[in-house]
What we know:
Layout lengths: L1 H10 L7 H6 L1 H33 L5 H23 L7 H37 L8 H32 L3 H12 L2 H10 L1 H16 L7 E4 L2 E8 L3 E6 L4 E5 L2 H4 L3 E2 L7 E9 L5 H13 L4 E13 L4 E9 L2 H22 L9 H18 L5 H4 L1
Antiparallel strand pairs: 1-2, 1-5, 2-3, 3-4, 6-8, 7-8
Helix pairs in contact: 3-4, 4-5, 5-6, 6-9, 11-12
Amino acid sequence: MQEIASLLHIVAPPIVPILPVIGRHVHKLVLGSFVLSGALLASFVVYSLVFRFVLRKTVAPDHPSILRRFRKPALCLFLIAATMLAIPAFGISEYFNDTAEHALHICFILCMAWLLIAAVYAVEDILMRRYDMHAADNLRARRIRTQMTVMRRLAIGFIGLLAIGLILYTFNNTRMWQYGAGLLASAGLASLALAAAAKSTVSNLLAGIQIAFTEPIRLDDVVIVEGQWGRIEEITAAYVVVCIWNLQRLIVPLSYFIDHPFQNWTRTSANLMGTFYLYADYTCPIAPLRQELTRILKTTNLWDGKVDVLQVTEFTPQAMQIRALMSAGDSGKLWDLRCYVREQMIAFLQKNYPQCLPKQRIAELQNALWEQVNEHLQSSPEPSPAQNA
């Protein structure tokens, strides 16, 4: 023993003063270690019985996300509770017990916050299983998904603030609270500056709450923002991510959708109407074009069967303007439908009525030529008398 002590004097001098304390409490350390090991083992057995045999057969078949999200925080809570019960068995000193219990209380609060956050995610998963975002008419699913996304972030923020407050409350030190109150009282100007700097953050937070309940936008909505066509891909606590047509992402602050006008093509329904224009000669018959439009729409599954209109909407000196109006289930199908029908109608005109395609008439060309000659004669200078002589 003396050789070991002399060796410790050389290798680890700071440990030497602790050796007498360890020698006096070695039996308490051994007893406490056995009690702690037994408590941890018992808690792990109870955890296994509850999660692996009970919940796996009752909850997991219908709601697997609950078991997956609650497994780790619940295990930590079981182990921390067992450790808190085993700490008095050490009995080394009151200071040791108080310090260990304080640390375990902080860990317990953190694990409870973790468990509550897992509960928030589990509730979101359960609701999202009932509403399919990939359905054709997913208006209600997008509404619920948007509200749940905003409420989830707010709930997680509230849980985090509550956990921090409870952790600070465990430090029951009057002097520390007095120092903290004095520090807060002397930081009045700094708080005003911080409030002014955080104005945009607070406005975005309030805009997020307003968007969640008034629903000017929802996830997967088709919008036109700053002249860009895109879909709402993500709604965070500070900004909105819009995936535009070329797969680039447009980052827009939340407050933008409250303060600025924008177009939402799927506000009440995903169904949309679209148009395209044909220009044909005045001799072109309209009835065959109207019949051909109906035939083309019926041959494609891009058309939803609701709108089928062809009308002459305007005359120009060279041709007449023909507008075709159609509808589709969503914006993507509508774009493809417009392109498809436009191609088929042009092919129909080229094949059956090539003489009715827009043309420049000879009389118009002659009139334009004479007008140019007259303008040239008027702009040229008159010859002087000397030149005529």
